[in-house]
Amino acid sequence: MSVDEERRQVELVVDRLAVEHAGLPRHTVEQIVHDVYAAFDAGVVRDFVPLLVERSAKRKIAALTSF
Questions:
Q1: Which Gene3D superfamilies does the entry mention (predicted)?
Q2: Which of 47, 57, 58, 66 has the smallest C-beta neighbourhood within 10 Å, fewest atoms?
Q3: Are residues 36 and 56 in contact, defined by beta-carbon separation less than 8 angstroms?
Q4: Taking Cα atoms as reference points, which of 60, 67, 2 lies closest to residue 31?
Q5: CA atoms within 13 A on the CB side of 43
Q6: What confidence tens digit (pLDDT) does each residue in 28-55 have?
């Protein structure tokens, strides 16, 4: 997967999670997803980064909204 495709996939993750969690401001969802994505910067194998970002961001959002 190219860098551009990876970034496009991560933006689709933002879109999906923003719809799933419409009660949160979109910029909050974007910030969470981009923070998680940044944690994968040093990774060499990039094939599953968008999937891993989505899973991790979902957990962070669930923790944020489960109070």
A1: Corynebacterium glutamicum thioredoxin-dependent arsenate reductase, N-terminal domain (1.10.8.1060)
A2: 66
A3: yes
A4: 60
A5: 16
A6: 999 999 999 999 999 888 899 999 999 9
